[in-house]
Amino acid sequence: MLESLEKMLAKGVDNSLLRFGLGKGYLDAGDPAMAAEHLQRCVELDPKYSAAWKLLGKALLNSDQPEAARMAWEQGITAAQAHGDKQAEREMGVFLRKLDKQNSPS
Question: Which CATH architecture has domain 2-103?
C-alpha cells in the first residue's frame, strides 16, 4: 500500500488524505520519522484534521521528541474542539496526561 501511495505523491498528487495514509502506513511499518514528515505536511494542508494531529503526536513521541508530540496533541485538541470531534479530543487528552506522568519526578 505504501508503494502505491508514494507513486501517487511522485506523480504530483498531494493532499491531506494522501499524506495521512502515508503517515499512518509509515507509523504502522515502524518508521516514525518518515511518518512524522508526512503527517506534518498533512496538518499543514488541513490544520483541522484532528486524527492527523493525533497520529503526528504518536509519530513524534516514537521518534523521541516528547515536546514536539505535546505541541502536536495540544494543537490537535484545539482542532478537535473547533469541529466537535470529542473522541479525538479525549484521546489526545489521555496521551498528554500519560506524557505528563512520564515526565514528572516520582
Answer: Alpha Horseshoe (1.25)
